[in-house]
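Model: Ready when you are.
Researcher: Fold this.
Model:
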Amino acid sequence: MGEQLVAPIAIDHPTEAPILVGSGQPLLLIGGPCALESEQLARQVAGTLKAICARLGIRYVFKASFDKANRTSLRSYRGPGITEGLAILSRIRHELGVPVISDIHDVSQVDRAAEVLDILQIPAFLCRQTDLLVAAAETGKPVNVKKGQFVSPWDMENAVNKLRGAGGSRIMLVERGATFGYNNLVVDMRSLPVMRSFGCPVIYDATHSVQLPGGAGGSSGGQREFIVPLARAAMAVGIDGLFIEIHPQPEKALCDGPNSLPLDGIEPVLAQLLRIRAAL
């Protein structure tokens, strides 16, 4: 399969011209902690990554979930909730001048989230939920759909068609691994060109792809040591962006720490990945 050209889509930016994502455009980084833990931590991550991406020529979107409704345990940390979470994301968007993205889990959240977020994200477990996809598309916002661990890459065309059928035109698809037995995921790199063939920019989720779902008993584990090797492979295959969970202290993160990268080591990783992209 040759290189699939993807017409760029535009993501609104609070202080600059819209970000373009697709063929011929700079790499996009969607990065931040799994869930919002505190405004101070969110600002630290967003400000640091904004500066790093500016130095490297990467376009940046801050990611953190106001609610993680799909945690393993009832006791697992979910985030501050929609009201406080969107308020924090709004301040980061306007005061730090970076676009923001967060998960939506229910149709009732869509309109409130669309008032703040630059991109609406559909979690992997919900990628087949027609009402949620339609509601997200009807906002006119860009929609970032994570491929379910249980869904083939070619079946993601159905999600794309649902969004387009509801008027959505700015669609991104995310590869985050496929179920491989119990408590394990594996990445089929064929999924990247397959999903790009639908005419959508494709993002590789380097951190959830090494998650061990439920692998720590009451929470998910992860294999952080494989994040960078798999990101290198995805970059060589050809992608439009990277999704990376990044935390100042992953071992203390309240959510998905085992498959997050440390903030203080991310710049050389990104620089290396850019060199691979340039070689293409």
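Researcher: Now this one.
Model:
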Amino acid sequence: MVDTNKEDEKLVGIVMGSTSDWDIMKEAAKMCKDFGVSFEARALSAHRTPEELAEWMTSMEKRGCRAFIAGAGGAAHLAGVVASHTILPIFGVPIPSKYMKGLDSLLATVQMPKGIPVSTLAIGEGGAANAALAVISVLALNDDSLKDKLKAFRVKQSEKVRQATLPELD
């Protein structure tokens, strides 16, 4: 276990290639916040700020980071670059792109070479939220309180479906 000041501890690093990706990636941040999981979110580019990205990741690991969520659009190399700098789990979120609607991002994120894994989620907001839930599931393996919160979340989701009604026909 990394020796860290609990106030400065961040269990999850959320990184995106640009501030314009925040509209998607804030869903991961919201999910972490809702579960009480500490996180830090940054906009850092694999191509434009590679040194700062590596420094931030090193800092995050020293502060107790257990997983990274990386979202990027277009060429979407961010998750792969993050994976190349750590052995921690990486969850990639393809960001919808202007011309290809995120298919380019999905393909770039999912096509990692053997030996450098990136778990790739769905394109967009759902992928960002599910990336956080995947991290929370991993953290819950060793945290009974988090496990209970995750179970309660699932029960609440089921209840919403059970209570849903369809509109009347005209």
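Researcher: Key takeaway?
Model: Strands lie at 12-16, 39-43, 67-72, 90-94, 119-120.
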